[in-house]
């Protein structure tokens, strides 16, 4: 049985997979970026939990990351559209179907990356904070 952490990350990846952009999880950047863009979900860092007793619960603010990448001549507008669609997916269900308490994304910090012999890339890491609780940090 998967842990709550894995269940939440899988649910977030499933929602990102519904977007037109290709959504990967934990993969390396491929050689080609398709016209609709590319999203790579990184599991990130759960951080130090707040702990409550009776009953024992670990409350996490898990920081996952979405790498958003677009390429092409209209990359600025494509990047803007891609970021807006990520925001819409998160806002549509901030609990991922009741799996976590709250999901929130932080603003991206875009950067243009030159590619030799091809159109440059526009990319950013979008931090996503997953608020959830569990009875066991390893389960």
Proportion of residues in helical segments:
10-25%
Q: Total number of β-strand segments?
A: 7
What characteristic shape results from the CA principal axes?
elongated
Q: What is the domain total for the residues?
A: 1
Please give the oligomerization state of what you see: single chain
Largest sheet: 7 strands, mixed
Task: Give the percentage of residues in beta strands.
Answer: 35-45%
Structural class label: alpha+beta
Order of helices and strands: HEEEEHEEE
Low-confidence stretches: none
What's the CATH first level? Answer: Alpha Beta
Describe this structure in words.
The longest helix is centred in the middle third of the chain and has 18 residues, at 75-92. The protein has one domain (4-127): Alpha-Beta Plaits. It has helices at 4-17, 75-92; strands spanning 22-25, 38-45, 50-52, 57-71, 102-105, 111-115, 118-134. Helix content is 23%, strand content 40%. A hairpin with a 2-residue loop joins strand 6 (111-115) and strand 7 (118-134). It has 139 residues and is an alpha+beta fold. It is elongated, with a radius of gyration of 16 Å. It starts with a helix and ends in a 5-residue tail after the last strand. The chain has two helices and seven strands.
Name a few traits of the molecule.
alpha+beta; 139 residues; seven-stranded mixed beta sheet; Alpha-Beta Plaits; single chain; 7 strands
């Amino acid at each position: 049985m998967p842990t709550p952490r894995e269940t939440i990350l899988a649910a977030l990846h499933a929602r990102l997979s519904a977007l037109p952009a290709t959504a990967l999880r934990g993969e390396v950047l491929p050689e080609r970026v398709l016209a609709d863009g590319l999203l790579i979900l990184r599991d990130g860092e759960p951080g130090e939990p707040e702990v409550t007793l009776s009953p024992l619960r670990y409350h996490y603010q898990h920081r996952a990351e979405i790498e958003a990448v677009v390429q092409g001549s209209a990359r600025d507008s494509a990047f803007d559209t891609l970021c807006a669609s990520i925001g819409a997916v998160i806002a549509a269900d901030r609990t991922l179907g009741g799996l976590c308490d709250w999901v929130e994304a932080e603003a991206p910090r875009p950067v243009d990356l030159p590619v030799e012999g091809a159109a440059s890339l526009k990319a950013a890491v979008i931090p996503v904070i997953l608020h959830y609780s569990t009875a066991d940090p390893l389960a």
